[in-house]
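Problem statement: downstream parser choked on a complex file, so we are re-checking the raw output for the flavin-adenine dinucleotide run. The parser issue turned out to be on our end (a line-ending mismatch), but while we're here, posting the original submission so the record is complete.
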Amino acid sequence: MKYHCDVAIIGAGPAGACAGAMLAKAGVNVKLFEREQFPRFSIGESLLPQCMTFLAEAGLVEAVDDWGFQLKDGAKFLQHGQFSEFEFKHKCSEGPHLTYQVQRDVFDKLLADGAEKAGAEVFYRHQIEAVCGNTLTIKDLSDDSVHTIEPKFILDASGFGRVLPRLLDLESPSDFPVRQSVFTHLKDNLPAQFDRNKILITVHPDHQDIWFWLIPFSNGTSSIGVVGETHYFDALEGQTLEQQLFTFIAQVPELAELLKDASVINELRTIKGYSANVKTLCGDNFALLGNAGEFLDPVFSSGVTIALKSSSLAVPLVLRTLQGEAVDWQMEYALPLRKGINAFKSFVQGWYDGDLRQVIFYPDPMENVKQMVCSVLAGYAWDDKNNPLVTHSTRRLKALAQTCSGSQ
Ligand code: FAD
């Protein structure tokens, strides 16, 4: 009976914690099963302002506001020594324009604690191992005991664990090539004039599909990472991950100069082949949240925003399902969620094929174009009322890129 519940959530990352908090607030008996003990490291440290709407819905925003994370008010891009800056306050969508750059061990624990405070139960070191109909098999990793549970509804928020996609054969390949990232945290010693309120995305001067993130935190440290197709890293075989990262950094004079006094303070990590898709985001008794569904690419920091949006969309539908209402999950969950994912996807495609970079680095952008791009960069990728770039975004980005290249 320890594990009896109406809704079981797999994973207590942002998607799971947010859904857990919202369901608990609505009076649902909800339990979260999390494989790790929190706090634990996670990548995905730069949030988008749209996130704050969903954190507020879940009652989790005060805890995040109070902690003292680094404020984030925009994004800065650097290519061949040229900077392009986006202030989120210039977006054309309604909603918050400020957010944070967060150490995810702290952030994820705050959210999971918030879900517990709202009345959800979180079981750490509990790994979901199998599913059959509504029955989940759970292993308690503290003593290897195995238990079953039969919730009325399952939310899979297992992120890169991709529990239900694996167990139910729902995986489908991503449209993107296999890319890799190597990353760590630095004591950054950035120059005093460096704007810590923005993520800095730097394009490699010779290989335009290699890029770096620099995400300053509030305590004088930063997250740094490099992203590229795996063959670039394979070519550095024999080097440690730290050597690989700094080999790439040394190839970008402006970034090397910025980081000349920085020192590594965390172990180096790498992740590859992270882009993933699924055949369906929902079934009769389950829905996939966040990364357990589709994951695109880290370049626009869309991961946590999509994760929280998925929780915000799914929870009211779970409530209706529990009340016995017939819910069309494809129409009411998968379709609306994919609308924003697809807008982000066009941006990611446009980044790598160069169309979006053309627009981002255009020296004299029209104000309304900059506002539209800014809105998506701020996470408002579902706002098709105010932003024409949300629908038909690939075609519209291409047209914009042609205009920019024609007038240069
Ligand atoms: P997660 O945060 O991954 O949480 C899933 C949880 O499920 C984990 O705690 C895991 O332990 C647990 N779990 C897994 N399997 C099981 C199991 N079998 N049983 C029980 N529990 C399980 N996003 C951003 O928003 N901003 C960024 O700057 C950003 N940078 C990124 C950089 C890189 C290189 C990559 C690869 C991703 C980046 N992302 C970023 C994406 C971000 O990491 C994810 O989108 C986000 O963490 C998804 O949240 P989630 O709640 O869906 O999953």
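For whoever reads this later: Residues 329-353 form the longest helix (25 residues).
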